[in-house]
User: Fold this.
Amino acid sequence: MSCLSNFPTVEVLSPEDTPRRRHWSDEDKLRIVEESFEGVRQGSATARRYGVSRSLLSLWRRAYREGTLCEGADQDTFVQLVPERPIPVQPETDQDRSDGTIEIVLANGRRLTAPASIAPATLAGLLCVVDPQ
Assistant:
């Protein structure tokens, strides 16, 4: 009977004892990724701060650069464009006026809608801001 006491005790773990996977909201992912881009070598520090693995943060960062991080989001997101220098406003003439619009679908899935009367230089500047590739 003494040989039975030499066996180690067994601890039974239930599913409630193990941590569950966290599901990050799109807003949290964006906030964490944008914070990781601030400064040099902030990826590892940001991952530690939020308890995210570095490889998962790297996947989020790649998806952010490709414009696919929040692809599954149900709502449209808009980016406020602020020009570096004021764009001169030219007075409209009846010839220049048009009620049409131009819609450009970019490679990353974003859409840019502009009036058809927009100056080509202004449109090119907007495209550089929205899709810097």
In short: The first strand starts at residue 101 and ends at 105. The radius of gyration is 26 Å. The beta strands are 101-105, 111-115. Helices lie at 26-36, 42-50, 54-66, 120-130.
